[in-house]
Fold this protein.
Amino acid sequence: MNKIFQLGIIFFLVGGFFYSIQNVQASPFFSNGYFTENGIEWCEENRPLYEILDEKFFEHHKHSLESRVCVSLYQDYYWTYEGSDRIEKLIERSKHYSQLEISESYDESETGIIDTTPAENKDQTLLQGLTEDGEMTVQIISSSPRINESMEINLTFLDKDNRIRTNVNYGVTISQQDQIILENGNLFSEKGLSTMNTRPLNSDKPVSIAIAINGIGIPEDSESWTGPKGEVVIFTVIPEFGDMTIVLLSITIALVIVFSFKSRIMNPQKKSILQISK
């Protein structure tokens, strides 16, 4: 009977999953699986409501995919970006968030475990580093290191006024446990943005990402490149706490409490001295 019930749940979720995809594609806010300009406007209109309702915002919109993508966008760098192409940047980012939501919905249809919070919030690390001359900020938005999975790293170059820096020549070295995962010393970002993916990782240990700034200018004319030049910004992406880490942490805390309690029993004079000194 339990198996029949479980199968029923799975079929219900799978059906709901495909139904939601069809609705997303038919929605005036979505086109080909990501937000249109109307979708971005819808997010802007609902931002005050999210600030008031917080987590209940998702319930208010019946846990819709649109609401989850909006909340991910609220936390994205481009939400506060002031460039003339802000809408285009947000539409492009919504593609990434929508794909994450659809992928998570598919996983939920197989496991029967439903999570109505934005998928993006669970697997993202945002880090920023400043070059020594203070002229450039390098920002990365990276997925967490997971064994047998590749890492996606979104790179953004900003000037000292927090605007995107274009025509950046740079190199990247990504390593884990002293092993090179990805290395390329001759890269170019015309628009100040770049996305790269590593090969599947052999471990879930921290990953080091070194971004070397070679200069600003077109690649064909390296002699006219401006600074910063030769500066390296290093990041360390630490994996999320897993279940085993939490268990070990709990055991450690428990042992500290036990040893502390035993210490007080074995040293009653020490306790009395402390009481007298008070």
User: Anything to note?
Assistant: The chain has three domains: 2-121, 123-240, 244-277. Confidence is low (pLDDT under 50) at residues 5-26, 242-250, 269-278.
